[in-house]
Design goal:
Elements (H helix, E strand, L loop, with lengths): L2 H16 L18 E6 L2 E2 L3 E2 L6 H11 L3 E5 L9 H10 L4 E4 L5 H9 L4 E5 L5 H14 L2 E6 L5 H7 L3 E5 L10 H8 L7 E5 L5 H10 L3 E4 L1 H4 L4 H9 L1
Parallel strand pairs: 1-4, 1-10, 4-5, 5-6, 6-7, 7-8, 8-9, 9-10
Antiparallel strand pairs: 2-3
């Protein structure tokens, strides 16, 4: 079983346990997702880096991101491998006026409905996580619920699935799923192949303003940044520095 398959299997097992409980009914209407800018991430840990910021306060961090000029917030809700929770999602969204992305390994209808019930404005779908026959209906359900969709690819061969899912944002992840190494050359190489329509989003490995400018020149309109901000003592200023 691949590393990603293990992550997906664990996420589905966790969701199956939560499915036994009623969903919240207090979610406010979804907020529109931006077509450009920096999406700042709330993340406690990762499989490749271990603990990053285990004691973070999602509300306080989200507010710092908003002051720093973030266009949106991304919240990792995976429990086992990233230390996140739906509570982190709810806390971050309640603390800001920005739209919030639920970042998790979503492959079931329940996970999509759960995301909206807990206040998410957008969800992540990963091309390598499931066949198109599963991902396409999830995208349609998200549309029905008013959720934007970030569709993530790692290879050019996955762009066909992206086209079929007609996402709002198409993210290219610079991280190799086997080695966890990041390579911005991969982002540049795939930029021209991204189909017209969705927002072009660069993910992972972005460390400074020069790299943001480099990827803008390649054609990217939005940027998802996590660890660079999370490891900085002043994430608000770090975000301003990235924006330039």
């Amino acid at each position: 079983m691949s590393h990603l398959a293990r992550l997906v299997a664990q996420a589905v097992a966790d969701a199956s346990e939560r499915e036994k409980l009623p969903l919240p009914s207090d979610a406010l209407p979804p907020r529109p997702f931006p077509r450009s800018g920096l999406i700042a991430e709330v993340k406690r840990a990762s499989p490749s880096r271990g603990a990053i910021h285990p004691g973070l306060n999602p509300a306080t961090l989200a507010q710092a991101y908003e002051r720093g000029g973030a266009a949106a917030i991304s919240v990792l809700t995976d429990r086992v491998h990233f230390g996140g929770s739906l509570g982190d999602l709810r806390a971050a969204r309640a603390a800001v006026t920005l739209p919030v992305l639920r970042k998790d390994f979503i492959v079931t209808e329940f996970q999509v409905r759960e995301a909206r019930a807990h206040g998410a404005d957008a969800i992540l779908l990963i091309a390598a996580a499931a066949p198109l026959a599963i991902l396409r209906p999830l995208r349609e359900l998200a549309r029905e619920l008013g959720l934007a969709v970030l569709f993530e690819v790692h290879e050019e061969s996955e762009l066909a699935a992206a086209r079929a899912c007609e996402p709002d944002l198409l993210g290219v992840n610079a991280r190799d799923l086997a080695t966890f190494a990041t390579d911005l050359d991969r982002l540049e190489a795939l930029a021209a192949a991204i189909p017209a329509g969705p927002v072009r989003l660069a993910e992972s490995g972005i460390r400074n303003r020069a790299e943001v400018a480099r990827l803008q020149a390649a054609g990217y309109e939005a940027f998802l940044v996590g660890e660079t901000l999370l490891r900085d003592e002043d994430p608000e200023q770090a975000l301003r520095d990235l924006k330039g």
